[in-house]
Amino acid sequence: MHRIELKDGADLDGFRRALRGLVALGLEPGEVDWSGGAAPSLFGDAAPLPADAPPVSLPRAVGDLIGTVVCHRDPERYALLHRLVWRVVRGERDMLDHHADPLVHRLALLDKAVRRDLHKMHAFLRFNEVRDPANSESGGAERYVAWFEPDHFIVEATAPFFVERFESLVWTILTPVGSLHWDRRSLTIGPAAVKPEHLDRDDRFAEGWQRYYESTFNPARVNPTAMRAEMPRKYWANLPEAAAIPRMIRSAPARVQAMIEAEAAAPHRRNPDKAVAAMARQEPATLAELNRIILAADPLVPGARQAVLGEGPEGAAIAIVGEQPGDQEDVEGRPFVGPAGQLLTRALEEAGIERSTAYLTNAVKHFKFVARGKRRLHQSPTAGEVKHYRWWLMKELSFVRPRLVVTLGATAALALTGRSVPVLRERGPTGFGDWGGFVTVHPSYLLRLPAGEGVEQAYRDFVSDLRWARGMVESAG
Ligand code: URA
């Protein structure tokens, strides 16, 4: 009997190595003891496995299944996988297609449980900001720590997800089955941890999540059973937004009633935004109608050649709001085609967001500039000008119905919130009334930074923000 000793948790490399040796020796599953541990085998130890056995050729689906199932807590997982591989190398290469086979069925259940656990960890892990003066990599500033209790040994398997999404932050993830530490350059996999007694919850980070969650919560569709199925109670303790759930559920009927009443009363009420809409003199019923109105309107500040409309599909999950068209946008009549737009397009791509799937627009629809000879120098819009265009923007977003609105820079944040927003301080998730929100910098800010080391980092931070925004949309389903 061959006893195989593997590391605690999910030892994928150890399992693969052992498998190569077992297949090379032609050892049947019945001759192998996968239970590990230091106690001597009842059956006596056999000769060691060859260390240089060649790789085993397996169908891709089998390789993928091994990758997930080794993460399961079931102590029989390695023995089951060995039985699978034994049969596959003996000719049953399409074995996974036989769903009624008891071994395949059992492995499929293990695979499903691990995938579900991975999904929960991706969706429900929340970082808490901690002050760490010793942390020189991040300028002695922020560090993020999260505590999570997965059901299975998935910590290592989740690492690429969190590194990709939070590449520009310094963070630590603690769990009872292992820990991860990322310092913006390298990942360290550490031992199991105990729950920290104190994780600072009252930071702006947690508040941002709460605002985001509350704004994406539709009281008319509240279904506590479905909510609990998707977000089981055991995760609530680590979710800042969970504090809002009972209150939101309790207030849902009243909020629905208020929505109905507001709808009924709308034509008779004086809405300050509608006063601005008087410039349109009509109520557009579609985005195309709204766009016709915008195109026909004169610029508030004369000079622009044309109004630049939003671009992208109605129903886009993410809407991105910039400041105003620049020189090139004014010439071409399309948003984000000049230098800042090109930088944005590159960052979106790196963040895994295809530009054509997002809706891109601006708070102000006309280019404002001063002429210097042949050059037209960009001028920031005033708060009054942003307000003037706000009704159009809100209407536009109500037709597009994004799940998340990302504001680039202070002008866009002002348009969405109605207040002056210190972008670097409030950067991150938030809520904009009916829409989930995310505040980040404008790409032209990156273009204006003085050349030096900080530029690359600032760009990486921007990409990381966009990835994070993508993650919010994905984890909201
Ligand atoms: N900057 C913006 O904010 N919007 C554009 O469309 C181009 C540059």
TrEMBL record:
Any one GO MF annotation of this record: 4 iron, 4 sulfur cluster binding
Pfam families: DUF4130, UDG
UniProt keyword Hydrolase present: yes
Statement: the UniProt record of this protein carries the keyword DNA damage: yes
UniProt keyword terms in alphabetical order: 4Fe-4S, DNA damage, DNA repair, Hydrolase, Iron, Iron-sulfur, Metal-binding
Matching SUPFAM superfamilies: Uracil-DNA glycosylase-like
Residues of the Uracil-DNA glycosylase-like domain: 309-463
Database matches in SMART domains: UDG, UreE_C
Signal peptide range in chain numbering: none
GO terms, biological process: DNA repair
PANTHER family per record: TYPE-4 URACIL-DNA GLYCOSYLASE, TYPE-5 URACIL-DNA GLYCOSYLASE
Protein family according to the UniProt entry: Belongs to the uracil-DNA glycosylase (UDG) superfamily. Type 4 (UDGa) family.
NCBIfam families: SAM_7_link_chp (TIGR03915), UDG_fam_dom (TIGR03914)
Protein name: Type-4 uracil-DNA glycosylase
The organism of origin for this protein: Azospirillum lipoferum
